Amino acid sequence: xxxxxxxxxxxxxxxxxxxxxxxxxxxxxxxxxxxxxxxxxxxxxxxxxxxxxxxxxxxxxxxxxxxxxxxxxxxxxxxxxxxxxxxxxxxxxxxxxxxx
Length: 100
Hints:
By secondary structure, the chain is mainly alpha-helical.
């Protein structure tokens, strides 16, 4: 599967991932993804850069190694967290305005 959840919101993404897990249970599958949430529960992750496998392991193993995967994961997490905080600030401002 190539980016099966690339253009959906996080709730829909989780529903799709659950369906994929059920359908592909007890089978081998290849999932190509840029979102770490899509692959973090995989039995084995291959980190491919410039057509070469640079790292391989579980999500936890790759984070512990602190190489390519770790760098991209922490960057994506920071960006997603920053968006969440920005949205939260926006809603807090709206709610504050409604209290007047």
